[in-house]
Structure formats: structure tokens, C-alpha cells
Amino acid sequence: MTQSIARISTGNAGLNAVLRGGLPPHRLYLLEGPPGSGKTTMGLQFLLEGVQHGERVLYITLSETTEELNAVAASHGWSLDRLDLFELASADEVLGESREQSVLHPWELELGGIIRLIREQVEKVKPRRVVFDSLSEMRLLAQDPLRYRRQVLALKQFFAGRDSTVLLLDDLSASEGGRDSHLHSLCHGVITLDRLTLDFGAARRRLEVQKLRGIDFIAGFHDIAIRTGGVVVYPRLIASDHNRPFVGDVTSSGVPELDAMLGGGPRRGTCTLVTGPAGTGKTTIALQYLVAACERGECGAILQFDERIGTLYSRAASMGLPLEPLVEKGLLRVRQIDSAEMSPGEFAACIRDLVELESCRVIVIDSINGYLAAMPQEQQLVLQLHELLSYLNQQGVTTFVVNTQHGLVGTMSTGSLNISYVADAVVLTRFFESGGRIRKAISIIKNRSGPHEDAIRELRIDAQGLRLGEPLVKFRGIMTGTPVYVGAEGYLMEDRNVSA
């Protein structure tokens, strides 16, 4: 049924995706939201899309002047020269001195005259697309709620049969309780914009399609952002919509001992969580897999929350993992994430672009702590992360997620992170003490995709790169988070050059 309904583009690719194709034409739609949520910008995008297809379009403004609209358009690099603008900045233009009569209330003449002029303008232009900005002014002029609703119904009946797709804008400022249920029932579809002010960082904006008769759309909230060029909509990610076949072969790190611990390496379409206290080599382990993939000719990416890119480059180079040459060859993408400015929806869209447009097959997220801590007021963030990782799994991407445990030596706790819910494999790194020195150990505590080694090995990271020692069998206190090696000293690995 849905496939047979004709659609027109809204001028916004993200909103078209939410609507699964666009809006059914020749209908009346409501776009509502508080001031500053992006209604005017989206309305202009809708009309400019019609201009691109050679359609006559009309912008009716009761609230903004032509100069103000041109300023909004100029900020996005648009020109409104090919739009028909109809401005009614004040009721004096409608009535002039007739307002002085005393038989009828001024508001009765004002609203009636405005509706008459709007109809005349529509008859003259015969637009295929109309934006009416905004209903709040009409509501104020009507004074009486019943009269206002009658006028809106009359507008709907007037546009019926005129082959016009109409977008009514409403800023909710004059409606009781913020929503007008009667107006919702009159319109074929309702799109609601929202603006949230956080305790820190940029304001978050989001969009919800509340109703669209006869159309299957993606329900729920979708993050949006106002950028130069218009409103960008980031559709809510639904992993089940993005299945594609792939071969679940292993991903090698280039270090045989490390691959052996994971039964040959993580498989395509799995997520590996590398967890441990700060300084135990978690990022280096993830980079080892990433660099090895790039050297095989695959495209990879790292999304960096915690560390500056310059520091990452120099630190990786000192351990024999040169990242910059891979970036220059186009095999590696490095993204610095400013999470105070980025919503979860935009982050998911960034990863989708890396996978679908740039064909990245190995992705590192460093770290999940930065992702969770940077968006503390977002609701259900772990659920959004799970959906994102499920999407990567279904795309056949090998994903590595770095998790820093609290404290200098770490604990077995991962805070609010449910390991089984998020990861297919878990690599655990630890410090241990031996002979007055702090050393590192690595072990695999879970591998859902196959067998894994249950031994604890020493991990060394120096100028020679990442190395693993023989299994260490004499430990005490491994489950406390502070394991102590009590075996022979000569069984441990020696330094090579200067430890990085």
C-alpha cells in the first residue's frame, strides 16, 4: 500500500529518509516547534526544493519581514529570488483607516481581510508548494478559539483540489499546553521540532513525526542540527534495516601470539571490547588490528574522543605503528570527536558515512568512556550504542571499543556498561607487580564467536611494537584487579630499547 502512494521531496535528505521517501503531495501539513528550533529554515528548504523542480512556490509570512527572511537565506547561501514572498507585517496594510469604525470588532475585520488577501494571492500565483508562517499570528488575530479553528478549516478546504502541498508553521507560543489537538486532527501530517538546552555544550535539537496518514515512517525522536546549508536530520538508526551479506572470516593483528589468544583473531561482524585501567595498552592493541588491516589494503577508521590526534600520531609512531602514512594513502580515517558539540544521532551518522560511503571495514572507538561521559543528559545512551554496534556487526565491520576502568590499577567492574550486551569478545589488560616493577598482563575473558585462550600472558609495548610473552601460571589476586606475579623472575620478558 505504501509503495503506491506518490511522494515529493521535502528538500531534506534526512527527513525524506525518516518519511521513507517524502511527503504525499496535495495535502496540508503542520510543522510545529518553539522559536529557534529550525521551522523557518526547514520551510525554506521545502520551497527551494520545489524551485529546483521548476515549480511555483509561495511563502506567506505574518511574523517575519522580507528582509529577515532574506537574512536567514543568505546565512545558508541561498537566494530567494525565485520564490514568491507574500508579506503581511501588520493589519494596517489590510484595512487602513477602516479600522476606525466601531460596528464590528477590529480583530474580526483584520482576520477576515488577511484570509481574503491570502486567497487572492494563491489564486494569482497558483503555487505547487506553500509555506504559511505562522499560525500563532492568526490565532492572536482571531481572539476566539472557535473562530480561529473555523478559519484554519476554511484554509484547508480552500487549498483542497488546488494541487498545492501546504506547510503550516506554528511556534506553539499561543496554544494552551503547547499542543493544539484540533489542529493536529485537521492536518494530514504533523512534524514536531524540539530544542533542548543542556547544562553544558551546544543545545540539542530533535525532530519527531507525530503522525502521517497512510504512510509508514520511522517513529521516535531523530537528532537534528542547523548547519550552513540548512537543517540536517539524522534519522534514528535501526540496525535491522541495514543487513548485508558478508564472510565472517578472522581479522588478524599481525602479531601471531595475540591472534592465537582470540582463536585466530576477531571475526568480521563482531565487536571486541578492550578493557582495563589507564596505561595498560588498550588503544595500542586496537591500533595494532587497525594498522594491520590498512596494510592489507583495507580501509579503517578511528574515532577519537580522549586523545588529541597529534598526540595519537606521535605515540603510535614511537611504537612502530605509523598512522600518518596510512592517512595520506587514503587507507585510514582519523576523526576527532568533539562530543560536547555532537549528538548521538550525528555520531551514528558519522559512522554510517565511514561504512557506507568510505567502505571502512575496521573501526576503533576510543573510548566508550568519552562517548558516555560527554553526553550525560542523553537518555538511553547505552541502548543507542548497542544499536550502533549491532549495525556495524550486520555490515560485516570488525569493531574495537576501548573501555577505561576506574582507578589506576582497575577493578573487575565496568560501571553501568553491560559487557554481554555490548561486546562479542572481551580483552582484559592489567598491571601486575614483580621485582619492584610494574608490568602489564593481557587475557581473554570472552569470545562469543569461537574458542579463545584462557591463559594470562605478559604484554610489553616498546619501540619494537607490541609483544606477548609465554603464559604466566603463577599469579595471585587476578580477580581483585591487582594481580601479583609470584613465579620466577627470569620467566618474564626483558626490555628492548626504551619502553614507550
Number of domains: 2
Compute the number of strand runs.
Answer: 20
Largest sheet: 9 strands, mixed
The top level CATH class name of the largest domain: Alpha Beta
Going by CATH, the architecture of the largest domain would be 3-Layer(aba) Sandwich
The CATH topology of the largest domain corresponds to Rossmann fold
End-to-end Cα distance: 63 Å
Mean pLDDT, to the nearest integer, reads 85
Q: What is the helix content?
A: 25-40%
Low-confidence stretches: 97-109
- Sheet-strand content, in percent, reads 25-35%
What does this structure look like?
This protein has 500 residues and is α/β, with parallel strands linked by helices. The chain folds into two domains: 2-236, Rossmann fold; 241-491, 3-Layer(aba) Sandwich (Rossmann fold). It has 16 helices and 20 strands. Strand 17 and strand 18 (465-472) form a beta hairpin. The N and C termini lie far apart (63 Å). The model is unreliable at 97-109 (pLDDT under 50). This is non-specific serine/threonine protein kinase. It comes from Tahibacter aquaticus. Residues 6-247, 249-482 form the KaiC domain.
SSE arrangement:
Layout: H1 13-18, E1 28-32, H2 39-52, E2 57-61, H3 66-75, E3 84-87, H4 92-95, H5 106-125, E4 129-133, H6 135-142, H7 145-159, E5 165-170, H8 181-186, E6 189-196, E7 204-212, E8 221-227, E9 230-234, H9 256-261, E10 271-276, H10 282-295, E11 299-304, H11 309-318, H12 324-328, E12 332-336, H13 344-356, E13 360-366, H14 368-374, H15 381-394, E14 398-404, H16 419-422, E15 425-434, E16 437-447, E17 456-462, E18 465-472, E19 475-476, E20 484-485
Parallel strand pairs: 1-5, 1-6, 2-3, 2-4, 4-5, 10-14, 10-15, 11-12, 11-13, 13-14
Antiparallel strand pairs: 6-7, 7-8, 8-9, 15-16, 16-17, 17-18, 19-20
Organism: Tahibacter aquaticus
Domain RecA family profile: 4-68
Domain KaiC: 6-247, 249-482
